[in-house]
Amino acid sequence: MTRGLMTALGLGVAVAALAGLYLSGVLSPGREDRFARCRTDQSAIGGGQIGGPFSLVSETGEAVTDADIIIGPTLIYFGYTFCPDVCPLDNTRNAQAIYLLDERGYDVTPVFISIDPARDTPELLARFTEYMHPRMIGLTGTPEQVAAASRAYRTFFKVQDPDEEYYLIDHSTLSYLVVPGLGFVEYFKRDMTPEEMAERIACFVDSL
C-alpha cells in the first residue's frame, strides 16, 4: 500500500470521526470530551460515524454479533492472515501492547477481523490469533458480512488480481479502540509503538 493512500485513508477516518462528534455522546454542546487528556491528535475524537453493529463468524465457527464480542474495551484490526508484511507486524504490535496492559491489570480484548473470507477459515484464524495473543479473537464471515463490518468502521480493502492463486489485498491499517455503550473512541496509526499504544489505551480505560 502506498504512503499516499494510507495518509488519505487516515485523513478520511479523522474527518468521519469529527463529523460524528456530537452524535456519539463523547462530546456534546456544553460538555467536555472525557478523553481529551488521552489524545495526541484532536482530529481523532470519536464519532458516531465509525463503528456499529456487525454479524460475523468466530474462529470457533459460531455466529456472533458485536454485542457478543465488545463486552469490554476492545482493540479491532481489519486484515488477513496471508498478508506478507503489514498485518503480521501490526497485529504483533497490538498483541505486545495488550501484554503490557495485562501486566498493569487492564483487561482489553484484541480482535482480528479478516477481510479475506475466501481463504481465512475459522480454523486458520484460530491458529493465527493463538500465535499473537491467547485472548485475541478472530472473526470472519460471508463476503457480505465482512463487507458490512468494513463499511461500519469506514475501512478500505481491495483484492489485487483476484484470479491469482496467491493474491494480495490492499487495505487500510488503523486499529480501533471500542468500548461498550460508547462504541468507537479512538484509532491508532501503525507507526505507534506498543508502549505508546498501551499508555494511550490505559488512559482511555481510566477515563471511562
TrEMBL record:
Keyword Disulfide bond: yes
Signal peptide region: none
Keywords, ordered alphabetically: Copper, Disulfide bond, Metal-binding
GO molecular function ontology, one term from the record: metal ion binding
Disulfide cysteine pairs (residue numbers): 83-87
Family per record: Belongs to the SCO1/2 family.
Full protein name: Protein SCO1/2
Protein source organism: Rhodovulum bhavnagarense
